Amino acid sequence: MTIHKVYRIRDPIHDLIEFGAPATADQHQLEHVLWKVINTRPFQRLRRVKQLGFSELVFPGATHTRFAHSIGVFHTARKLTAAIERSVGGVGYNPHKCRVAMAAAMVHDLGHGMFSHAFEGVMRSLGRTDTKHERVSQRMIRETDIAELLNQITPSFAEEVAALVAIKPPRDFYDAIVASQFDADRLDYMQRDRMMTGVGSGAADVEWLLRNLEVENVPIASDDDAGGSVQTLVLGPKAYHVAESYVLALFHLYPIVYFHKATRGAEKVFEALILRVFQLVREDHAGKTGLPGNHPLITFAAAMENLDRILDLDDTTFWGALPMLAEAEDPEVRRFAMQLRDRNLLRCIDIGSMAAEELPPERREDSGSRRARLDRIDKACDRVIERKAELPDALFDTYKRNPYERFQKADTVFNQIHIKQPGGVRDMAQLSAVVASAEPFRICRAYVRRDDMHTENVLRNIVRTSVGSATD
Amino acid sequence: MPSLEPHLVAARLVREAGGVLIGRTRLQKVACLAKLAGLLDTFEFEYRHYGPFSEGLATAMDTAAGLKFVEEQETQAVWGGWYSTYRATDRTPPAEDAQRFQFVTEAAKIGAIQLELAATAAFLHVKEGLDGPEAWAETARRKPEKAQDNRLEAAKVAYRQLRCLSTPTPLPAI
What we know:
The complex is a heterodimer of chains A (472) and B (174). Chain A has helices at residues 25-38, 41-45, 66-88, 95-107, 117-125, 133-143, 145-150, 157-165, 184-197, 206-211, 240-258, 261-282, 296-302, 307-312, 315-325, 331-341, 351-358, 367-386, 428-431, 433-437, 453-470, and strands at residues 7-11, 15-19, 213-222, 225-235, 347-350, 395-401, 418-421, 424-427, 441-448. Chain A is of the alpha+beta class and 472 residues long. A four-stranded mixed β-sheet of chain A has the order 3-4-7-8. In chain A, strands 5-9-6 form a three-stranded antiparallel β-sheet, with helices on both faces. In chain A, strands 1-2 form a two-stranded antiparallel sheet. The termini of chain A are far apart. Chain B has helices spanning 6-16, 24-36, 55-66, 98-108, 112-128, 132-142, 144-147, 151-163, and strands at residues 20-22, 46-48, 51-53, 70-76, 82-88. With 174 residues, chain B is of the alpha+beta class. Chain B is built from eight helices and five strands; from the N terminus they run H-E-H-E-E-H-E-E-H-H-H-H-H. The model of chain B has no long low-confidence stretch (mean pLDDT 92). Classes of the chains: A alpha+beta (472), B alpha+beta (174).
């Protein structure tokens, strides 16, 4: 079968993305199959799941979808495979693994629920680990029309793609296209999220990185003990400074965009609202939610493992339900729904800052003392969270992220960013003092109603006693 | 009596290793095996590429080095990468437990790769319920390059020798 039709998508980040442009027969077939995958129900649903969930409440431009992102990830994965082919070439190059990686890159986000990570938080609170988005993506690949389409490439293609979307850790540098600190997902979202939110920081020269990508042998060792080598992705020496910017740019998006206090506050209200709706359904009081019995949220609550019910849920399902939820008989549902509807969000109390006020730095603090002080602040925050039951009217949010997973802490050598140097290949954190010394980003916050001064006062007392016990 | 702060526990491991402990991997695996032997209760471990790893221990040792409870020196290895050497200072807490002192001293003498393989197998046995042969086989599967050249067999021998030491909890029989 010869198909010459080329499908084109215009993208704000990558400009023209083509499916089916002249290439090898296998690549041509893959891209035509992926075009059909785009036109399936699970993939079209991604048009209705925003990439950044509630971030648009803070960054009005951030209305881009997981649909656009997923196509961008495919395009980036295709560039990564081209770089691998340039570097490895000939018999060392495995085109089949590259095709699996490109397909996995495109469908990796299929399983995201409405408001993505916020919904995952809801399911985690319910103890439902089977609804993690990677697991749901796997089900959509295996159990919907997508399987049949992908298996047109080879009989087990869908299964290979399904395995790769949840791979942890990556097994080789082909897997690293989909799952590493330099994967197609990150390379797309860091550009897209920056552009759509409008934030000025967080830029990185991705094209330069891709141009300098190679496959090289990297020693496998523990401390002073060498134990063979493996091939993995490395960046050429001219990409060193750009790679450093890449790591920091990606990292800065977390405090500036993803963990913005108002966005996270909205997510916490959303989680509380959905948990309350599900609780009412479970207790046979669905009528008190304000939603009709056949509303997708109600039918999902009764059959959370049903893939059709999962597919019914997207951001628009929720926004459409909001006027009804705001009229609910249940006061909690009503209150949370109105808060989101009117963007009347909760007040954020930064517990970490409160603890830091209690533990001010000495006048000339050296790095060791600083580290010890930050450890104590962390410990104090942990103790506050342990006592959160004393503050029933507050919602809590904690998170910690390292700018770069250092070699020692990494899941695998394939997850690292390696830089080629005259003396051999070096890990990014070994080479860059900036990356090596960048401190983790931590949040420990409580959200309370704007007029709730009582909870803030109790919280401040708990912080004081926690700081005291953390420094004993 | 209040328990020792994590960075002091980490520093004390260096003292117990004989005053010098070479490598972050060795530090992690010695601590993990000490924990499995009932000699340490401060840190929690999870599985990473280098086998069992404790973020808490890594942070604690960085703090200990920053506060000069130990001295850390980075050296370039023959294979091209870098490794840390921790040395006790006069601020390093003393070794108080004879059993732990002996265990840590002996464990720290084992080659880093053998130690990593042994700690991984023991950890997989405890955390993932793999029996002895399965734990070693899974270790070899996850670390094919390191398990080559008779290193897995050497790890088994080293582990068996550690098991002979007197500890509050016997190391898993794998």
